């Protein structure tokens, strides 16, 4: 079966532009996470969706970051007015519950020039 | 404060030896603890899950222990191979900010030398 997919795989943008990253989770997975990973660093939690509950946005670093999820399907992470420090790999993961194993996508490598 | 600590220093071992990685946590009471492997340029991949009522779990050359008194999990790779070289992350389910979700440690890099 299909795993978690993310698009685009690479995105190069200019400082100040908005970007939108997409995540397609595994069908039926109610939990969806977004993480940021800078080069050589660990996973930085951004946001968590669980079913139809209000998302946990506690990891979003600033109000330039937002994310949406339609039901239990696709999620988009939007970064407005990108800055160079936003350059990182953005990983999405889905899970059948809040504590079960997470399945990660391949990530989107974002470079802000 | 709540913390998950993994050794930030890389672990270097010789092929054939047993690698042991440590995950310590503070101010969490997880029901589950998981270990993942991450290769450069890729997302983490799930390896093992251990429940709080399990002391030990094995899968092929991997063994995980979970000591809720010490608040520690140990991850062992026996008969290590250069292909085992990667970063290993522990994760636990935690109630944080009103949400029950999986929280990751920063990971420990393992290098197995021929």
Shape of chain A: globular
Rg of chain B, nearest Å = 14 Å
Q: Quickly count the domains of chain B.
A: 1
Q: Which band does the percent of strand residues of chain A land in? A: over 45%
Average of pLDDT of chain B: 93
CATH architecture of chain A: Sandwich
- Give the class-level CATH name of chain B: Mainly Beta
| CATH-defined superfamily of chain A | Immunoglobulins
Shape of chain B: globular
Give the helix tally of chain A.
0
Name its key features.
heterodimer, A: 113 residues, mainly beta, Immunoglobulin-like, 6-stranded mixed sheet, 4-stranded antiparallel sheet, 0% helix, globular, B: 114 residues, 5-stranded antiparallel sheet, 11 strands
Q: What is the compact description of this entry?
A:
The complex is a heterodimer of chains A (113) and B (114). With 113 residues, chain A is mainly β.
Secondary structure topology:
The complex is a heterodimer of chains A (113) and B (114).
Chain A lengths: L4 E3 L2 E4 L5 E6 L6 E7 L6 E7 L14 E5 L5 E5 L8 E8 L7 E2 L3 E5 L1
Parallel strand pairs in A: 2-10
Antiparallel strand pairs in A: 1-3, 3-7, 4-5, 4-8, 6-7, 8-9, 8-10
Chain B lengths: L2 E4 L4 E4 L4 E8 L5 E7 L6 E7 L4 E4 L2 E6 L4 E6 L8 E11 L2 E6 L3 E6 L1
Parallel strand pairs in B: 2-11
Antiparallel strand pairs in B: 1-3, 3-8, 4-5, 4-9, 6-7, 7-8, 9-10, 9-11
């Amino acid at each position: 079966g299909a795993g978690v997919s993310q698009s685009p795989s690479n995105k190069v943008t200019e400082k100040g532009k908005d970007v939108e990253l997409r995540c397609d989770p595994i069908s039926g997975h109610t939990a969806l996470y977004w993480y940021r990973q800078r080069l050589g660093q660990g996973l930085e939690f951004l946001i968590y969706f669980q079913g139809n509950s209000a998302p946990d946005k506690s990891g979003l670093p600033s109000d330039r970051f937002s994310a949406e999820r339609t039901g239990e399907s696709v999620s988009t992470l939007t970064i407005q007015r990108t800055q160079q420090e936003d350059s990182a790999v953005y990983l999405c993961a889905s899970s059948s519950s809040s504590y079960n194993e997470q399945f990660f996508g391949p990530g989107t490598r974002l470079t802000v020039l | 404060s709540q913390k998950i600590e993994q050794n930030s220093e890389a672990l270097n071992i010789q092929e054939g030896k047993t690698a042991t990685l440590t995950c310590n946590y503070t101010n969490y009471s997880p029901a589950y603890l998981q270990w993942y492997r991450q290769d450069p340029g890729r997302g983490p991949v799930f390896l093992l899950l251990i429940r709080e009522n399990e002391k030990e779990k094995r899968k092929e050359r991997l063994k995980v222990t979970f000591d809720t008194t010490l608040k520690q999990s140990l991850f062992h790779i026996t008969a290590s191979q250069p292909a085992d070289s990667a970063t290993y992350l522990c994760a636990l389910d935690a109630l944080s900010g009103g949400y029950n979700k999986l929280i990751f440690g920063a990971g420990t890099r393992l290098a197995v030398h021929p």
